[in-house]
Amino acid sequence: MTIIFSLKSELFTESVMAVRKGQKKKKRGILYVPGDSPVHSLDPRTKLLMLFIFSIISFLTTNVIVTSLILACIVALALNSGLFNKWLYSLRLLLPLILFVFVMDLFFSHESAGAEFFSAQIWFIHAYATEGSLYFSFSMVIRLLIIAGFSFLFIMTTKYSDFVKSLQGMKVPHIISFSLGYALSSTATLSRDANNVIDAQKSRGLEFDRGSPMKKIDKLLSLFIPMTVIMLNRSGQVSDAMQCRGYGTAEKPSLYNAPKLGKDDFTAIIFLSFMVMLAFILIHFVLI
Question: Which compartments is it annotated to reside in (predicted)?
Fold first, then answer.
């Protein structure tokens, strides 16, 4: 009896540990993480302004020094938010795109400055890599990290309700603010649904990590079809819920607990102004 009881307790412990591991594995994707850091406390309008300014500067220049400074600021914000490890882990989603952008810009960017490292004629396409194309490919990768990195940080530190309220506070039309806010909220929901479908298909013996790329295409159908059905069902549920709540009946819907700019927001705006001035000076006077 003692042996049976010990075996049962061990099996129970293993099952509990397996459930906990499964729950930890399901916490994937880019989701809002509650916190009380200065980045969390920033008004969503301030973070949107930061995203806009950083993106504009990165598009106006291909200088690696300027874009690296912006990326360093984003890394500092991620460290200040207390979510650096999660933010860095979320960037793994960009690895295939980063590799694709780097290779395409390296061999097909038409930047011929500097010494030539590689040259080949592939059918009717001439591929070559030079110092200029290497520099340009690095700048494009950093630009991608700036836009996507701060977007991920924005999602991880901004509540869906606060984002909608901030858009309404900016006098954005209600239908637009609701659509953008719902799109932000849907990223987390779709991520959870995709993880649930993948776990369900794996429990049925389907392995997504093995096989050739052509075989993986067939396996992805087992993911796309359930996700399509889930999205169609959810869209019907959302439309029914909106109708039951009388959405669109009020001409000027009220806004409860409207967001207000605080000291951290004014500090961030001053910092943004300094970054714009520094980037302008570096681009036009120093890094010519």
Answer: Membrane
pTM for the model: 0.69
Mean pLDDT of 62-86: 90
SS (H, E, C) the chain: CHHHHHHHHHHHHHHHHHHHHHHHHHCCCCCCCCCCCHHHHCCHHHHHHHHHHHHHHHHHCCCHHHHHHHHHHHHHHHHHHCCHHHHHHHHHHHHHHHHHHHHHHHHHCCCCCCCEEEEEEECCEEEEEEHHHHHHHHHHHHHHHHHHHHHHHHHHHCCHHHHHHHHHHCCCCHHHHHHHHHHHHHHHHHHHHHHHHHHHHHHCCCCCCCCCHHHHHHHHHHHHHHHHHHHHHHHHHHHHHHHHCCCCCCCCCCCCCCCCCCHHHHHHHHHHHHHHHHHHHHHHHHCC
Question: What are residue 128's DSSP bridge partners?
Answer: 119
Measure CA of the first residue to CA of the last residue in the chain; give whole Å: 83
Q: What is the dihedral of CA 197, 199, 205, 210, to 10 degrees?
A: 100
Taking the domains of the chain in order of start, what are their residue ranges?
Answer: 41-158+263-288, 161-257
pLDDT bin (cut points 50, 70, 90) of residue 64 is: confident
231-278 pLDDT, tens digit each:
888 888 888 888 887 777 777 777 677 777 888 889 889 988 988 888
Residue range 120-177, pLDDT digits in tens: 666 666 676 777 788 888 889 999 999 999 999 998 898 877 888 887 777 777 778 7
* Rg of the chain, C-alpha, whole Å: 24
Round to whole Å and give the CA distance between 29 and 156: 10
Residues shown for the chain: 288
* Phi, psi of 115, deg, nearest 5: -70, 150
